[in-house]
Amino acid sequence: MVTNMPGSKLLGPISGLVGIPVYFVEHERDKVQKKTFTKWINQHLMKVRKHVNDLYEDLRDGHNLISLLEVLSGDTLPREKGRMRFHRLQNVQIALDYLKRRQVKLVNIRNDDITDGNPKLTLGLIWTIILHFQVSLVLLDCMFLVRFLQTRTWSSFSSPCHVNLCSQMAI
């Protein structure tokens, strides 16, 4: 029988298994998210020759966070050059303020949470950035495609494939 860690809850039967600790499931999920988000960040940071090894550590001073936002947005953001806690907090705050100006909703994420390397809130922040910048780009591409297709006449689509695509999109 699996014992329960202090403060954790046990799940009920899952696929015939009883007593899988919630903390284990949450820990595995967090590990996967950390790895996935780190790869996503590095895909973008490679454009400015930067790299994140440890998501929770390497965002703490705010520099990589600011660089990520600059790459994603094309904007240039100010940053503090010092290494003291005040400078790190200020850099993270610059990033958070920028996101708020872009109407990105940040729920209960403060600069000290990221500066202190809080895993849950760091993952939450990166997920929010992914949703805003990556998913919104996909939606814009889809909207552009729909508008483009709406400007075409039916006669310009000669193949059955085009007609099928348009009917599936309800245009």
From TrEMBL:
PROSITE patterns: ACTININ_1, ACTININ_2, CH. Keywords: Actin-binding, Membrane, Repeat, Transmembrane, Transmembrane helix. The chain crosses the membrane at residues 125-146. The keyword Metal-binding does not apply. SMART domains: CH. This is Calponin-homology (CH) domain-containing protein. GO terms for molecular function: actin binding. Residues 31-134 form the Calponin-homology (CH) domain. SUPFAM superfamilies: Calponin-homology domain, CH-domain. The keyword Iron does not apply.
